[in-house]
């Protein structure tokens, strides 16, 4: 679980550094060792969901668009937010169309990173 969560977090940080306009908030690039336990659990869970999706699709996730890949990561993350936070801020559970472009691109990058890792 730790390795999968770390991989997810590293892909998130790389995506934020690549796509975020300007200087990202420190919480966006906080290293694995410093994020809360619930966030570690959520990262590992979403990694596992993406990896399982890739595996049960027999690698055919390569045919999905970047948007479809990003949407999958975003939806899995929203479910984890609801699991770990009783009354999340609306921005934590925003639908795909309401996410900023940098976050959509980062989510797609995360999917593709896990896809390669699988």
Structure, described:
With 118 residues, the chain is an all-alpha fold. The chain has one domain. It has helices at residues 2-19, 37-56, 66-84, 101-117. The two termini are 14 Å apart. The model has no long low-confidence stretch (mean pLDDT 97).
Mean of pLDDT: 97
Helix amount: 55-70%
By DSSP (H or I, 4+ residues per run), the number of helices equals: 4
- The gross shape turns out to be globular
What structural class is derived from the secondary structure elements? mainly alpha
What is the chain-wise order of helices and strands?
HHHH
Radius of gyration based on Cα positions: 13 Å
Unreliable stretches (pLDDT < 50, length at least 5) are none
